[in-house]
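Hypothesis: this fold can be encoded by more than one sequence.
Test: take the structure tokens below, design a sequence, compare later.
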């Protein structure tokens, strides 16, 4: 466990200012990606940014090293992250509209069909899904497809989840669900058009104060100032502490557990929070 904590601390310490560009204005929803670009489900893609030479991948599809490190910190700090308070933003649960239940059921059926193909995790790997930090013990491992991530930036397709969610059992992986993503520029009305907000609640991680270099180990302490469990949650407080403030770290995310029978379990908010995405 000590080695895991040390490894995570190293990842956090290597978080660089490159993730700040994710806060820039993103291209309009109707714009097409330019050649050499790829959209970022974990972070909005600024127009004209060439991603062709980037490496690494985070669990929600972003592939800059800085975002990868932020994801690693998020993964470790968000276990049981229902307590994240001001660092978690969730869509409001809306009253049901006519057609919501039928549309949600259609999404579940499509998600189930898509997931069935990847019950054997080797198939996912063969088709380009990559495991986010397989060397770090996790409750849920995210296998992410950059192709699906790019598509999700512009449109929703339940047949193409951004990530597949697996539990690890020994050397094997058991598929339990899928994750869809959407760019942070979307309004709740636009998210509702993807998945009814009377059924599901999307979430994103917000108010992240990145610690200065000499205080990054503090992000792993029981009562940190910095990070996604930190007491700092405003630009002013972060500036005063010498940190770097990111209003939104990643984009919108929602988990679906299509193998469950009860809708409450299929769209369980508690379970997806426990899965530490």
């Amino acid at each position: 466990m000590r080695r895991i904590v040390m490894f995570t601390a190293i990842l956090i310490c290597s978080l660089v200012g490159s993730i700040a560009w994710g806060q820039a204005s993103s291209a309009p929803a109707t714009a097409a990606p330019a050649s050499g670009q790829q959209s970022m489900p974990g972070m909005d893609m600024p127009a004209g940014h060439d991603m062709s030479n980037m490496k690494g991948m985070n669990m929600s599809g972003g592939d800059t090293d800085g975002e990868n490190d932020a994801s690693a910190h998020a993964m470790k700090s968000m276990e049981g992250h229902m307590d994240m308070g001001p660092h978690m933003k969730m869509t409001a649960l809306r009253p049901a509209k006519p057609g919501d239940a039928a549309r949600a059921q259609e999404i579940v059926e499509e998600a189930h069909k898509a997931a069935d193909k990847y019950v054997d995790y080797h198939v996912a790997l063969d088709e380009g899904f990559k495991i986010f930090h397989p060397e770090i013990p996790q409750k849920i491992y995210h296998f992410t497809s950059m192709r699906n991530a790019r598509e999700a930036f512009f449109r929703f397709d339940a047949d193409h989840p951004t990530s597949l969610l697996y539990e690890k059992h020994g050397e094997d992986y058991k598929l339990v669900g899928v994750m869809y993503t959407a760019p942070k520029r979307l309004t709740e009305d636009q998210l509702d058009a993807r998945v009814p907000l009377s059924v599901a609640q999307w979430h994103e991680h917000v108010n992240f104060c990145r610690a200065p270099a000499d205080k990054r180990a503090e992000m792993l302490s029981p009562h940190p100032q910095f990070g996604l469990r930190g007491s700092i949650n405003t630009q002013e407080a972060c500036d005063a502490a010498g940190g770097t403030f990111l209003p939104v770290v990643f984009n919108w995310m929602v988990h679906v557990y299509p193998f469950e029978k009860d809708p409450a379990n299929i769209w369980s908010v508690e379970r997806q929070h426990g899965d530490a995405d």
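The longest strand covers residues 172-182. Residues 91 and 201 are 5 Å apart (CA to CA).
Hypothesis status: open.
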